[in-house]
Amino acid sequence: MKKESIGIGLMGLGVVGGQVAKVLTEKASALAEQAGCPLVLRKIKVRRIDPERPRAHQLPAELFTTDDDEFFNTPGIDIVVEAIGGENPAREYLKRAITSGKHVVTSNKEVIAKHGAELRALAREHHVGLRYEASAGGGIPLIAPFKHDLVANEISGIYAIINGTTNYILTRMAREGIDFPAALKSAQELGYAEPNPENDIEGIDANYKLAILASLAFQHEVRPEDIYCEGISRIGSRDFRYARELGFAIKLLAIAKLVDNAIEARVHPVLIPEDSLLAKVDGVYNAILVEGDLIGKVLFYGQGAGPSATSSAVIADIVASAQDILLGVGNRFKWKAESGKKIKPMAEIETQYYLRVNCADRPGVLAQISKILGDLKISIASAIQKEADMTAQTAELVLMTHPSPEKAMQQALSKIAQLEVVKEISNFIRVENI
Amino acid sequence: MKKESIGIGLMGLGVVGGQVAKVLTEKASALAEQAGCPLVLRKIKVRRIDPERPRAHQLPAELFTTDDDEFFNTPGIDIVVEAIGGENPAREYLKRAITSGKHVVTSNKEVIAKHGAELRALAREHHVGLRYEASAGGGIPLIAPFKHDLVANEISGIYAIINGTTNYILTRMAREGIDFPAALKSAQELGYAEPNPENDIEGIDANYKLAILASLAFQHEVRPEDIYCEGISRIGSRDFRYARELGFAIKLLAIAKLVDNAIEARVHPVLIPEDSLLAKVDGVYNAILVEGDLIGKVLFYGQGAGPSATSSAVIADIVASAQDILLGVGNRFKWKAESGKKIKPMAEIETQYYLRVNCADRPGVLAQISKILGDLKISIASAIQKEADMTAQTAELVLMTHPSPEKAMQQALSKIAQLEVVKEISNFIRVENI
User: Fold this and answer.
1) How far off is chain A from B368, nearest CA to CA, in Å?
2) Least confident of A118-122, A331-335, B374-378, B407-411
3) Interchain CB contact of B7 with A (< 8 Å)
4) Nearest CB to A302 within list B33, B298, B336
5) Residue extent(s) of CATH 3.40.50.720 domains in chain B
6) How close is the nearest chain B Cα to the Cα of A105, in Å?
């Protein structure tokens, strides 16, 4: 299709939207060359007009509107870029854009994680592209590999450090020996964690991103509620000390595996071998390790957030959409209606476990705990006993098991907690040997 | 374009070609779904018919031919996959395929490094795709990021461990304290290095791959002869010891940078900080670190060679070509005719240097060397003097400079070598702080 220009309608002029507008303006000529014709910003939908907002005063006032109808009725918009985030009204906006025949680019992980299947089907029906590279991993190409580069592979596993806030907090804890509350507070002061940090530290953000990645990797809709999710607030500085002693690092991982045509998907802290490449991913950086039958292991690493990195992915999607429009290509995404795969319940997963128990400092404790584990066919790989507290007459016992079913381990935990000699199960962390 | 199937002509049934044929056969149904219709192997061109060759006996005999004309005249070939390697006749085969209107996929680094510009122009002229993801980095998507994912970025640097053989040898040297000849011999025995290892250890293989990557990243033809190239055979076990003492690892890096619109491209051993992610890339693994203005640093890691990983990239290219054919898309690659960039001569680069000098064990040596460096405005960042050999009355002096121009450093080296107190400049390695 020969076109003089490709028109862009931008929804939202926040951190991401503002940066997208900036790049579209500043790199106009380079992007025109990549896309095949100029990319022209035709309308910007904002909640309220605020000429003092950064970027806003650099853009012509007539570009702005607060009115949905005015935005969607603007002539010459070929691509709608949604950068407002959140589930609603983003979902309705995306549906409206798609049904009115516009190609769509979004950086919104929540709406894609929750409504990806619906939006993909709608986009296919209306012959338009739906692109969301920026929804996971910021500027790191994480979506593209599953759609293009790795298509010859059967993906067997995804292991991802995909939330910068929690990785920053865990890195501080590992390096400085500080506890979670202190690390969180410092992260908040430095702007790496939000005043209300729940979304990050409870693993919700990682959950959304994993839902997106696993759905693509396994060609099966993995919904946020299919994913077991546990945050990092229970991790103590002691866990880092013991983990190190055992040769492990602690990371919040988003894990998805395909075993016997069943999908296992979970977000929780894990011990990983300290010489694993993922163990070296520190601070706000993200990384995803993908295992496929042909490629073996590949890893992608970079800045998983931030306006600049995110805009890199959004603009790449805009350019790809523009190329498709010029080539007369509508929707190109393949998706099996029925994959035949199942989601595995958490109780059925099998992994190794790290267990830290606060118990009475007297003989026979290990024997009692070992018996419970043994009866449930859980065998112990290693044990450390130390940190005896003379006054309280307690000791700390750290156990690492061999691979065992989650169900048996949960039964063991509840029995161990009931032992008279056990004061408290201080922590319980799964282990991944990657 | 509605088609019943996409026909594939395969040239070469060696390690890569054989694996491609295997995957096309074994994954036929999954690939048909990805591509949009079945991918059918219609002809295989081999140098000689050998029914005993692995794979060959699993394929119908009528697929094989040794005759070029028969191959190119086979009806229904839409995509030609070149897996014979080397410069000629691969170049002529690719040209013939392109000029007869076939989309082309190749894993051949040498032909793309040397003739990429010619082949790209030809493919554009004949409205067909030219894809070569497997030519660099095996199964790791290295080409795709530059063509798609990072298009919004101005790339400022590429730092790549892109030859598995040399990385394996250097890893063994670093871990075991052995010297180059022993590590090479062991690598050869294990099949990680070829009986004639020159192509790998002298950096020629890395040179080709860097030419391909730099040409894409900077949208400017970087030819193999534009790249300074130095192998790893001069590295000694002592260099690893001193490097470690200074906090560095030693890797063979392929480096390309864009500074003031001038392209700097070189392959040589470097000292990199040991906490750099690239320093953790061990054994036959490859990794590429890319710096862009929006994304900051991204890193891609995986198996850079091997039939299985390489076939993953070749098949992804075949699927992309098939999708394009079905969508009626010919050539889609943008390439500026004139980028306006220059190639920077090696003498003009600026970096830090590590220098190991075997000198007389007597006072004043450091003063004499420092004077030469100082006169050339090269300042010393750190110095280690040790390993005195009592019998020979010599000592080893290790210096690390601050960033200095290569030209001045080469002058300094030749002056230092002439000092009466200097027995020998034992080694000289550049340093990259990445």
Assistant:
1) 42
2) A331-335
3) no
4) B298
5) 6-139+307-327
6) 14
Chain B interface, best mutation among A151, A303, A329, A338, by max B CB count within 10 A: A151
> H/E element holding B387?
strand B380-389
A402 touches A214 (CB < 8 A):
no
B285-292 and B296-303: which strand pairing? antiparallel
Q: Does B20 touch chain A (CB under 8 A)?
A: no
Share of chain B above pLDDT 90, in %: 87
Q: Is B328 in CB contact (< 8 Å) with chain A?
A: yes
* B367 in A contact zone (CB under 8 Å): no
Given A45, A109, A209, A344, the catalytic residue: A209
Where do the CATH 3.30.70.260 domains begin and end in chain A? Answer: 347-431
Taking CA atoms, B102 is separated from A195, B84, B123, B263, B330, in Å, by 58, 17, 9, 33, 10
How confident is residue A56, by pLDDT bands cut at 50, 70 and 90?
low
Does B139 sit within 8 Å of A294, measured CB to CB?
yes
The residue annotated as part of the active site, out of B43, B109, B114, B209, is B209
Q: Which fold is adopted by the domain A6-139+307-327?
A: Rossmann fold (3.40.50)
CATH superfamily of A347-431: ACT domain (3.30.70.260)
- Can you give the pTM of this predicted structure? 0.94
